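In the present case, backbone shapes were mapped to integers, as reproduced here:
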Amino acid sequence: MPHIPPTAAPTLPAPNLRYYVGIFSIGYILVSTLCMLLQRYLPISTYMVTLLTIGIAAYITVRKFVRHQQRALMRIEVLRLTLGAVVAVWILSALYFLSLWFLVFDAISREVLQEAFAARPWALLQGLLLMIGMCTLMTWLGLVSFSRLLAPAGHKKL
């Protein structure tokens, strides 16, 4: 059997990660909607809802990826998916907040929020940075762990 050098081995085309970021976004929207409905009956903190929605969205994304590609995610794919998913989550969060701001809040509610931000801007910025960091870390951990867990036999390397 002839030895094929690594450069001559056939390479598979790279998967379109935008598709999987879209799957992550759809999963995030669906799970966060379910969590908002559950919050009416169960006292769930917003941090726990964020972790739960990101974790389940990561599971859905990795499951789709493994089913389509028949392999685990590579390290560069995990990093790119993490970045894309975090950007998608924060775009969706900004759209949600803007829709609340313009469609739900009245003038008094807007004024109260503006005064709260003016009184303690650093506390709100620290909370925002904490949420971005937590979102990034949970997305990365979810993608890595589910990729290892759901990978077909023989493809466990990341």
Residues 17-150 form one domain.
